[in-house]
Amino acid sequence: MTQASPSRNDRFLRALRREPVDRTPVWLMRQAGRYLPEYRATRARAGSFLAMAKNPELACEVTLQPLARFPLDAAILFSDILTVPDAMGLGLYFAEGEGPKFERPIRSEEDVAKLSVPDMETELRYVMDAVRLIRRELHDRVPLIGFSGSPWTLACYMIEGGGSENFSKIKAMALNAPALLHRVLEVNTAAVIAYLSAQRTAGAQALQVFDTWGGVLGPAMYREFSLPYLARIARELRRGEDAERTPLILFGKGNAPYLEELAGTGTDAVGVDWLIELGEAARRIDGRVALQGNLDPATLYGKPAAIREQVRSALDSYAEGNGGSRDGHVFNLGHGLSPDMNPEHVAALVEAVHALSAR
Amino acid sequence: MTQASPSRNDRFLRALRREPVDRTPVWLMRQAGRYLPEYRATRARAGSFLAMAKNPELACEVTLQPLARFPLDAAILFSDILTVPDAMGLGLYFAEGEGPKFERPIRSEEDVAKLSVPDMETELRYVMDAVRLIRRELHDRVPLIGFSGSPWTLACYMIEGGGSENFSKIKAMALNAPALLHRVLEVNTAAVIAYLSAQRTAGAQALQVFDTWGGVLGPAMYREFSLPYLARIARELRRGEDAERTPLILFGKGNAPYLEELAGTGTDAVGVDWLIELGEAARRIDGRVALQGNLDPATLYGKPAAIREQVRSALDSYAEGNGGSRDGHVFNLGHGLSPDMNPEHVAALVEAVHALSAR
Predict the structure, then answer these.
(1) Whole-angstrom Cα distance, residue A304 to residue A299?
(2) What one-character DSSP code corresponds to residue B145?
(3) Which one is catalytic: A34, A125, A288, A312?
(4) Contact flag B176-A277 (C-beta cutoff 8 Å)
(5) Contacts of A218 in chain B (CB under 8 A)
(6) On the CB side of B340, how many CA atoms lie within 13 Å of its CA?
(7) Residue A131, burial from CB neighbour count under 10 angstroms (0-12, 13-18, 19+)
(8) Contact (Cβ atoms closer than 8 angstroms) between residue A159 and residue A170
């Protein structure tokens, strides 16, 4: 398998390159997830989320599930954003009904000193095996997206030890020991670059960085602790790639204030949440990169007719801000799908995107 | 007692009117709260948060506690943002370790039809009694702020039945039955206006509306379901007031995209969270109203020296965006204090604001 083998449906990759397409491509964050009964069945067989994510066959199975139901324009590797710190030895686990946690969070300078970039083909081999298997099973129907958490977002979990209400530990470190936090972010950045490069080598045809928690930072801290590391990832991933390079999407919750800066990092696309009109985002990005987003996921709690109207608004808003053209837009939600969402509503959304964006 | 009786420390009211002051005034959202041991002691005596909020003597006691410790420039009524829907008959309660909940949330058109504006001097008399008592006990040392939740924020709790992760019920109503949601918001708005007016009559010298959840809405929904009701409150509260009117502050988490619109509502001040530089906020508000905010509350996890630097940045950023003047700025956090914060750090913050802003 090579990256050059073209996908039969290449709308997604063309849109990321801002090339003309017949319809706006669509995929959905967490499209392989608990809202699908077949996903819940696989998970029950696997025993746990992590067992499923660490088993390439099961990861492949759930990656493909939403594609069997909906005419999505991309697949995304089924995995977790925290595989990298897990491979660093922090001990990822999921307490029932809670989010991810680490058994050995970073608490001291010694903990920081021990951090190093994991080996991709041993400690994270299960991810690369999953990428290779999914590519094989996809038969180039649609492109496969690989991904990672951002350096800042990984650091949040590594230092807080899990989810957090006010990010007290990492913000205390940012204030009291910023050099120490930068060391964590340096290691994370090197690891994310190696991780995304390895996924690309294994066959990922596009890459997304999830900066899930960048938006909890005020502007000065965002520009010190998140943005420069995103920019380094974008720069390093381009190095040595030819014109056929694997496009990169920088997604971030709460990244609307920084669109111009993100568009200037060298990334191919920026993914935005639902707190900004796509038209405004497109105007500010000004054709420099592609734009991904941005329906409020809660739109899926609406009836199909309401979903369709929201899709229409988003499509039209993008075109209005993009000089009348729908090109350069990848349709997505502004955040992931939730377990209580109705698959029929997801079908209505995907159908509406394709129907209402036909050129 | 009359509103005309001047407070000895009137920096806060002068800043809200954009008049010159000797130092930038400061108060802190949730300044009377669990981070104070004396608050925890009063709460233990009261038995519960609600018992404390509904008892004017205890509400007065905890309102005054932070003023005994710190040279704050305003007191804020100790109460809950959900007193109004509680008085509408929804049955507010607090489950241990969880946020506020309602026993009888709004689930149907019939529930909506039953909603009405509560009587302020009977059903909410305990709040007005607390305002009167606090004013008496304050002896005009500093002004007293009254407050309410915003119509949208009240509706979130009334419809979700408590806190929410993705606001699925109220957003479903916004999409599937917008007219029904507008009816809820109409009643809430009338109730908030009556509630704030009654607090003013009882002696509140400034009023703040907390739009805690406005920021979960995308722009189109914010402009349909939150902003117009905030604007109506600002307009109605001005009606019939003379030049000595009681200033109004519209605070909202995630309101940065709408500063120009908020400044145009007729409010006296806008309160912002920490996700925008004060300088940018001041430039966009352009002297039309005062600005309140906006340190990241997590700054209090930093050491006093770091807190001082963050205070300096915020003060300087405001002045830079306000044509070099520190006037028209009320210092505050971008959100409330948390129970695990150190009162000595709060002292350092208040001291730094006064020291670094002396004219």
Answers:
(1) 9
(2) E
(3) A34
(4) no
(5) 274-275, 277, 296, 334
(6) 10
(7) buried
(8) yes
> Going residue by residue through chain B (359 aa), what tens digit of pLDDT does each one get?
444 456 689 999 999 999 999 999 999 999 999 999 999 999 999 999 999 999 999 999 999 999 999 999 999 999 999 999 999 999 999 987 788 999 999 999 999 999 999 999 999 999 999 999 999 999 999 999 999 999 999 999 999 999 999 999 999 999 999 999 999 999 999 999 999 999 999 999 999 999 999 999 999 999 999 999 999 999 999 886 765 689 999 999 999 999 999 999 999 999 999 999 999 999 999 999 999 999 999 999 999 999 999 999 999 999 999 999 999 999 999 999 999 999 999 999 999 999 999 99
Top residue of A301, A318, A338 to mutate, by most chain B CBs within 10 Å, is A301
Residue B294: asked if its preceding bond is cis (omega within 30°), the reply is yes
Q: A296 vs B221: CB contact, 8 Å cut-off?
A: yes
Query: How many distinct helices (H) and strands (E) make up chain B?
Result: 16, 9
If you search the block for the tokens 């420390």, which residue do you land on?
A: B9
Closest to A216 (Cα-Cα) out of B196, B274, B28? B274
B 31-50 residues with CB < 8 A to A: none
**C-beta pairs of B269-275 under 8 Å, 24+ apart in sequence:** B269/B16, B269/B330, B271/B208, B271/B330, B271/B332, B272/B334, B273/B215, B273/B334, B273/B335, B274/A218, B274/B333, B274/B334, B274/B335, B275/A215, B275/A218, B275/A219, B275/A254, B275/A257, B275/B334
Interface contacts (A, B; CB < 8 Å)? 88
Which amino acid, residue A256? A
Catalytic residue among B11, B14, B23, B43: B43
The yes-or-no answer on residue B235 being catalytic is no
Which of B295, B317, B316 is CA-nearest to residue B306?
A: B295
B84-138 residue pLDDT tens: 999 999 999 998 778 899 999 999 999 999 999 999 999 999 999 999 999 999 9
DSSP code string of A317-347 = HHHHHTTT--TTEEEEESS---TT--HHHHH
State the residue for tokens 């959304």.
A349
Residue B34 falls in the annotated catalytic set? yes
pTM of the model: 0.96
The ipTM estimated for the assembled molecules is 0.95
Closest alpha carbon within chain A to B297:
A166
Distance CA B247, CA B207 (A): 6
Q: Cα dist. B116→A9, B46, B123, B185 in Å?
A: 56, 30, 12, 11
- Contact of A277 with chain B, judged by CB distance below 8 Å, is answered with yes
Tell me: the pLDDT tens digits for A254-266? 999 999 999 999 9
* Cα-to-chain-centroid distance, residue A204: 13
Mutate to test the interface with A, among B216, B301, B317 (most CBs of A within 10 A): B301
**Nearest residue on chain A to B256, judged by CA atoms?**
A257
Catalytic residue among A14, A73, A129, A157: A157
